[in-house]
Amino acid sequence: KMAPMKISLEMEIGITGGVEDGVDNSGVAKDKLYSTPEEVWQVYETLAPISEKFTIAAAFGNVHGVYKPGNVVLMPELLGKFQQYAGTKLQRGKPLNFVFHGGSGSEKEKIDEARGHGVLKMNVDTDTQWAYWVGLRDFY
Length: 140
Hints:
Helix content is 35%, strand content 16%. By secondary structure, the protein is an alpha/beta fold.
């Protein structure tokens, strides 16, 4: 139904750690915080025949919320491996478009690396919420 309306789809796969909207993923096994090339490929293979208007929010250690540096092991190099896996199958470089869920508090170098591997959009909701609340607190 989305293709005729030219609507894009954002597909989140794997588990984004942390807590958001009452869902607590902070206790999940660490290996669940990382998507695999096969999982990413399955999403691409399923959605590509329907429309090219989709992005994949793969899990690469990203978490909802803000954490002290060192508490999160963000591995944007995995996005490069996902690109390589799909690129080999499709015989072209960087065929995937990614979304970076749980980007609040991430280090600039990791953000830049993720962008280099095909991240088109980054969600920073927690940073936005903190800025909003600090503004309200300081005003009143």
